[in-house]
């Protein structure tokens, strides 16, 4: 078993707990890059609902230690906002909590298992990970109760970041846990979802009229982030249209592309994967339809000079 006594590595600031509303907490992990995600939890006297876990054993144990530092109540329910390992690898450490997610999330987790991403990312201390897929699934929405506080889980309605994105909405507090539908300060990533569908997801998130957004990566923010996300996805679609018109593939198109203000975002190599997805959609592919994800990620590594992608998990 790997140790978990260190709050952070690589000179990063340690994770922090932010109480975004009474009894509603965001767990923010700097610097929000690959596999350094956010989680959250809602507390009542008789139990806790957690939103996501973390990518490594050590990071998940640190998250659960932080939860226990706020309340001695048990984590009775765990919500997974989508199937990616940075949000689900630590599920097993919440046992015997009920794990709830969209039905596609369970299917994809069972299909992909625990991955260690050899040769794609810089080596990480993943720990002794065990697969723990959701035990309760839903297709559209379901309500949870944390004491007297309602937490609504909504499938976003189509492919966006993935094909199984769920938000956790606390209507009484106007707090939205968005999962990776929102990256704040990082490059969005939709190679397993949809560029076009991400616009629909943003429109859907706006309908909640949130005051606080807890993103999947990066600092807590407001719905103003939705405008930034839309601008990025328009940029990707415009770049894809130019690449298609010139017969340029996604890797070469990315290499020729001036990222402009989006160069300030972290993990800029995601532009290549996003172009793979956008070009597929321009060719008539359905939102969330199958593309060669292995080739897209390989092109991201090539864009990175052939070096494994930065990973400080």
Molecular structure report:
This protein has helices at 57-70, 85-88, 103-112, 195-206, 225-246, 250-256, 270-282, 293-303, and strands at 16-21, 24-28, 39-44, 47-51, 75-79, 98-102, 136-138, 141-146, 149-155, 166-170, 175-183, 212-217. With 313 residues, it is an alpha/beta fold. It has a 7-stranded mixed sheet. Strand 4, helix 1 and strand 5 form a beta-alpha-beta unit. The protein starts with 15 loop residues before the first strand and ends in a 10-residue tail after the last helix.
Shape: globular
Q: Going across the major beta sheet, what is the strand order?
A: 1-2-3-4-5-6-7
CATH topology of the domain at 16-234: Metallo-beta-lactamase, Chain A
N-to-C span? 16 Å
CATH architecture of the domain at 16-234: 4-Layer Sandwich
By CATH's scheme, which homologous superfamily of the domain at 16-234 applies? Ribonuclease Z/Hydroxyacylglutathione hydrolase-like
User: How much helical structure, as a percent, in the residues?
Assistant: 25-40%
Give the CATH class of the domain at 16-234: Alpha Beta
């Amino acid at each position: 078993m790997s140790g978990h006594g260190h709050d952070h590595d690589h000179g990063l600031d340690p994770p922090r707990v932010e109480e975004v509303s009474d009894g509603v907490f965001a767990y923010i992990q700097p610097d929000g890059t690959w596999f350094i995600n956010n989680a959250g939890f809602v507390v009542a006297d008789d139990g806790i609902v957690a939103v996501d876990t973390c990518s490594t054993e050590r990071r998940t144990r640190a998250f659960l230690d932080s939860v226990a530092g706020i309340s001695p109540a048990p984590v009775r329910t765990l919500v997974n906002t989508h199937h990616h390992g940075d949000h689900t690898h630590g599920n097993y450490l919440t046992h015997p909590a009920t794990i709830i997610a969209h039905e596609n999330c369970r299917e994809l987790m069972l299909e992909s298992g625990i991955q260690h991403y050899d040769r794609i990312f810089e080596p990480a201390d993943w720990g002794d990970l065990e697969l723990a897929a959701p035990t309760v699934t839903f297709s559209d929405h379901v309500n949870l109760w944390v004491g007297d506080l309602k937490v609504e889980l909504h499938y976003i309605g189509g492919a966006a970041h993935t094909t199984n994105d769920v938000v956790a909405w606390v209507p009484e507090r106007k707090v939205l846990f968005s999962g990776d539908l929102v990256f704040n300060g990082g490059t969005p990533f939709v190679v397993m979802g949809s560029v076009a569908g991400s616009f629909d997801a943003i429109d859907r998130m706006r309908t909640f009229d949130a005051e606080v957004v807890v993103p999947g990566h990066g600092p807590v923010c407001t719905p103003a982030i939705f405008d930034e996300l839309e601008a990025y996805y328009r940029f990707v679609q415009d770049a894809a249209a130019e690449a298609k018109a010139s017969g340029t593939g996604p890797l070469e198109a990315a290499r020729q592309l001036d990222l402009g203000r989006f160069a300030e975002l972290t993990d800029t190599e995601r532009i290549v994967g996003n172009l793979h997805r956008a070009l597929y959609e321009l060719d008539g592919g359905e939102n969330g339809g199958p593309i060669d994800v292995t080739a897209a990620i390989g092109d991201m590594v090539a864009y990175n000079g052939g070096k494994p992608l930065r990973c400080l998990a």
